[in-house]
Amino acid sequence: MQIVTLQNSQVNISEIENIFLDTSSIQSFKSKHEKYNFIDKWLTPYLENWPELVYLALHQNGSVMGYLTGCKCSLSAKDELSPRIASYLTFDEYFAEYPAHLHVNVLSSFQGQGLGKILIQSFISDLQKQTVKGLHAITSADSANISFYKKLGFQVVSQKLYKKWTLLLMGQYLFSN
Ligand SMILES: CC(C)(COP(=O)(O)OP(=O)(O)OC[C@H]1O[C@@H](n2cnc3c(N)ncnc32)[C@H](O)[C@@H]1OP(=O)(O)O)[C@@H](O)C(=O)NCCC(=O)NCCS
Fold it and tell me: Mean pLDDT for the chain?
């Protein structure tokens, strides 16, 4: 297994899209248009704007087993992301304390093998080199990934209702002082 960034790889974007669709909370779409809108909302802006913060876990045969899409400064990314992700500003008062954010997805057939953990550790290590002070992820209150994030040092910082969903902001500081 090898971790590379999208910027330094020849990977076909469709592999990343397939992992996104394999692991996403929505599994059926009314049309192809709806499906591609979903990808354009949650995945494409990260691939296009911050390819150096897209971490890929590559199998020895070169295929992608999982990926992390990151953003170093959620506040600066506001103009890019908030028009696409309607809930983006729900927790914006925490962007100063936990500037970076991430999404992480591992193909179901490779889950539970430590890939998600290695992807997050790779992102954290780069953020620390750049002295980014904190990191957050947004999830929902009923999601199985809460335990995963807790194991990786995140804590529940805030909980809010967005439409019919209870969202959690899970954050961690990257420096102790
Ligand atoms: C969440 C996800 C990224 C975890 O990736 P993974 O490669 O399966 O996780 P890892 O194997 O690296 O697990 C790291 C640690 O978290 C724990 N963990 C992982 N998923 C867990 C779960 N659902 N419940 C409890 N603990 C969990 C593991 O046991 C492991 O603990 P350890 O270090 O003590 O052994 C993956 O399950 C996934 O893609 N899920 C669907 C999409 C998703 O929810 N993404 C996150 C929201 S954006």
Answer: 96
